[in-house]
Design brief:
Number of helices: 2
Strand order of the largest sheet: 3-4-5-6-7-8-9
Number of domains: 1
Helix content: 10-25%
Largest sheet: 7 strands, antiparallel
Order of helices and strands: EEHHEEEEEEE
Shape: flat
Structural class: alpha+beta
Strand content: 35-45%
């Protein structure tokens, strides 16, 4: 299977004092290829298919993240919650069949610091073979604030991986 890497985008993002997110592209924008002829139309159709697929995958993931407190309570009340000890004083809290059959939402908790360290979703779009996974790793700032340090979305059926890394956090000038 051939893996095609799409153009990478790097952006510097920050939240303003009013809470709005500002994204500034870093580096030169990717060059657009000319889309003339049959190859251009095929490439455009493939691009549209990927866009539709990723939109569906994103909408599905938004059913899990952030997890609904009511759904967590329902899962707990119905005995659909498992606790698994993990290394380094952590605990995995698993919710099988959270949204649909055979899916799984897992929260990684640092039991000493009482912090969320990971969130994982294993689900699928139309059938279990069309797996979509999300892996979120949290970091902690010097003041104890937790943030999403790295988010990875995998859609293996389409051979798509999206990685978002957050870094360079600093205090706003007062």
């Amino acid at each position: 299977m051939e893996v095609e890497e799409l153009p990478r985008q790097q952006q510097r993002a920050h939240y303003g004092a009013d809470g709005t997110l500002t994204k500034i592209p870093v580096g030169a924008p990717p060059k657009a290829k000319s889309g003339r002829g049959i190859r251009g139309r095929v490439a455009e159709n493939k691009k549209d298919d990927m866009k539709d697929y990723m939109e569906r995958a994103s909408n599905l993931i938004h059913l899990y993240v952030p997890p609904s407190p009511a759904q967590i309570q329902t899962a707990k009340d119905t005995g659909n919650m498992l606790l698994r000890p993990l290394p380094q004083g952590q605990m995995g809290v698993e919710f099988p069949n959270f949204i649909q059959p055979s899916d799984r939402l897992t929260l990684g908790v640092d039991t000493k610091a009482l912090l969320l360290v990971a969130l994982n979703v294993a689900t699928y779009l139309d059938k279990p073979e069309d797996a979509v996974t999300l892996d979120v790793r949290f970091g902690t700032l010097n003041d104890g604030t937790s943030y999403t340090a790295r988010t990875t979305l995998d859609a293996k059926a389409k051979n798509i991986r999206v990685v978002v890394e957050n870094s360079g956090h600093r205090l706003l000038p007062q």
